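Continuing the series of single-chain predictions for the mutant panel. This is the parent chain; the variants come on the following pages.
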Amino acid sequence: MTLYADLPIHDVPHTQPRADAAEGLVITGLVAHPRLLRTADILVLPRVKWAAPFRCEEGWVVPSVEWQGFRVTDVLALSGLAPSAQYVRVCAGTYVIVLSLCEASAALLCDRLNGQPLSHEHGAPWRLVVPGGVCFTSVKWVQRLEVTAAPGDSSGERIARARLSQLQQNIPST
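Parent structure:
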């Protein structure tokens, strides 16, 4: 399997956060110990693999992609969830996807793609992958996990659909 040969690369928007793995991953909200997790803190967790076709609403499909990373709930457990915790807001700058803790138990915070370290263009240092989720839930450049009692605003779908609409408007008609 080629590292990234079939997975399209979109331009990295200049406004998109360029998180550095050395900065770490922030865990906030309804947790016992809000903290900045370093990569080494996360690497002690059990590593999980998930392979499946990767589909985008733009119309393309990559037939086989293998993601490797850590269950989001295992990462959150490093900070201790409060009893009132119900949701996790996965944040990359202003791009936010909300998952219930049940959904988060299947979701992965990935650092590897097809057996190789994840490239920046594909979301390094951390990319959210939600098995069975739509493409826009695959958040690149994850910076923060915010645990909440209510879902709050989820900007990711709006941002992704606006981008898709813009792409469709730029397609020449035949």
